[in-house]
Write a structure and sequence with these properties.
Length: 310
């Protein structure tokens, strides 16, 4: 038994700020309780063990707070490292990996066999929550071959797919069972082939199919820079129409992310956010505190609302 001297706990001046921080989360808890949040965890944000562990804590926190988190993960750098180890060439066209059948085997092995397994393991360190799957499972994601548009020409980039259908039943069943689906961006083709899908595109399509409240993309920059690479001023909020106007200027990895955000908010997702995954607990800070961090894309008619409350 431990007995505290009378009044000591109440006078303890470190307690109040902690309580106030918790109370700051109350309106957001009220707002997001029971809502689905699709979180894309980019390969570039998985830079160290501490960050990955903090990410897992945040996702489980969301689950305990009554939200329904769904994780779609990337793994581009991890795939490139493995291809390199195997002496296989790796190249990108318009931010998409040129995917030969041999490359596809490595993509599948790294995403479903390594990255997804690691995230599932970290999440399940907190309880029996995470279930890993790929878009192939239960026909969750169906794709057709995608061509890259280069100087007006359609260029063949191999087994890269565009999602044409999402069958969200399996993911919804997992959510209904209190699980946290962890999904690799691989799809079954209408032609029976297996396709490599950009993970931002997959997360966006899934957010739409699930009727998610929010799409959150964790990457390795603070958000969308207004004038990249010349300045690091981050656009904190923009409307779908404003984003659409910016798309032609965007380069490399940012293009599929912002296209995904645009597609999401134009198709009924409440907001889409790009956050710095290198900042520990950026997910919790974004969802449960008043200071929005990163870039938030809102539907055109929500543009008047500020501070993250779209
Ligand atoms: N306007 C922009 N604002 C921020 N980053 C940009 C912009 N345009 C291009 N980028 C690049 O996009 C990268 C993020 O995309 P990517 O490397 O594919 O990340 P991830 O692995 O998280 O999907 C940034 O590191 C940056 O180099
Ligand atoms: C078609 C295509 O480019 N697929 C990606 C899939 C992984 C991914 O998107 O990972 P990040 O989010 O970490 O970039 C690739 O092969 O790298």
């Amino acid at each position: 038994m431990q007995i505290a001297p009378k009044g000591e706990q109440a006078r303890n001046n470190t307690a109040l700020p902690k309580a106030l921080t918790l109370i700051e989360a109350l309106p957001w808890l009220e707002r997001f309780h029971g809502k689905t949040v699709v979180i894309k965890f980019g390969g570039n944000a998985m830079v160290d063990e501490e960050l990955k562990a903090a990410f897992a804590q945040d996702v489980v926190f969301l689950r305990y707070a009554g939200l329904h988190p769904v994780v779609v993960h990337g793994g581009g750098p991890q795939i490139s490292a493995q291809l390199d180890k195997l002496g296989l060439e790796s190249s990108f066209t318009n931010g998409l990996r040129v995917t030969t059948p041999e490359t596809m085997d490595v993509v599948r092995m790294v995403l479903a066999g390594q990255v997804q397994r690691e995230l599932v393991g970290l999440l399940n360190g907190h309880g029996p929550f995470a279930v890993g799957m790929t878009g192939e499972d239960a026909h969750t994601m169906t794709a057709v071959k995608r061509y890259a548009l280069v100087d007006g020409e359609h260029v063949d980039i191999g087994l890269v797919g565009d999602i044409v259908n999402i069958e969200a039943g399996a993911v919804k069943a997992l959510i209904g069972d209190g699980r946290i689906p962890v999904i690799s961006s691989i799809a079954r083709g209408t032609d029976g082939h297996v396709y490599n899908i950009n993970a931002d595109t997959a997360a966006s399509a899934l957010a739409v199919a699930l009727g998610a409240e929010m799409l959150v993309v964790l990457t390795d920059v603070e958000g969308l820079y207004a004038d990249w690479p010349n300045s690091d001023d981050v656009i904190s909020q923009l409307s779908a129409t404003e984003l659409e106007a910016l798309l032609p200027e965007l380069a490399s990895g940012m293009l599929p992310k912002m296209e995904g955000c645009l597609n999401a908010v134009r198709s009924g997702v409440g907001t889409a956010r790009v956050l710095d995954g290198r900042v520990q607990h950026s997910l919790l800070l974004e969802i449960f505190t008043d200071e929005g961090i990163g870039t938030m894309v809102v539907p055109d008619d929500d543009m008047m609302v500020t501070g993250g409350l779209a």
